[in-house]
Amino acid sequence: MRFWDSMPRPARAAVATWLALCFIILAARSLGCIPMVASWGGSAVIIFGMPRSDMAQPRSLIGGHILSTLIGLGLVTLLGTSLWVGVLGCSCALAAMLVTRTVHSPAGSNPLIIAAINPDWRFLLIPMLPAALFLSLSHWLFLKADAERSP
Length: 151
Prior knowledge:
Structural class: mainly alpha
């Protein structure tokens, strides 16, 4: 832990981002899933770069990703895949996140990604839910390490 404590905060945030995303990508690939790196990368920037912000909290991180993924999957199921369905999904996801107080900006891209790759409904359970939970756990560990470093 001494090495971690000696690192400046931007370096710790960068290392935490790298470790979390590498783990998620390796886990997703080992399960035969398409790693959805775009929105998870944005999530990592928020949870490690602005760890105390509202968007970094589990309610927004997990809730935003799950809600927008459900919306994306639902719209693609009903309307098919196209860029316009993805745009509609992004708009609907934002409205739903605002209503439920789960706004997490990277999650807003999930419907666009879903419209582009056209996964089935299992995409919600693997890789989306485990990745959101892992990022939330990583965020908690990062905050705990920072708290132990504070005077």
